[in-house]
Amino acid sequence: MSDLSNLLLLLVLGAIVGLWLKLSTARERAVQEARRQCLRHGLQLLDETVGLRGVRLRRVNGLRMLERCYGFEVSIDGHDREPGRLWMIGNALTSLSLPTIELLPHDEVIVGTALPAPGSNVVQLRPRTDHRLH
């Protein structure tokens, strides 16, 4: 009887270690994805880490899969701390939430015109002249 209980205890410990290793590699993948998204959007990933915020079941192509939510903090200009979140299924990014950036502050708007202030990084867009779909 004690051999069976020892075997069961060993299996439970092995399952816990395996789950911990799997979650650790998933977290490392989330850190890499957060770095990549911050670099892509011109943000700074603070503390170089992410934290698991939640797990939920999500239906993908008729299959129920676990989706993990990771939270992290980013800085837009180096003087602030804004929250960001990413959702992953396996190693794939399914959703991303980053803070919004106001590119043109209200005090730099030239009154009476639709043009951006001189020296700002706003690109003026013009409407398309032809209405064909490409």
TrEMBL record:
- InterPro entries referenced in this protein's UniProt entry, alphabetically: DUF3301
Source organism superkingdom: Bacteria
Matching entries from Pfam families are given as: DUF3301
Q: What is this protein called?
A: DUF3301 domain-containing protein
The record lists the lineage as: Bacteria, Pseudomonadati, Pseudomonadota, Gammaproteobacteria, Lysobacterales
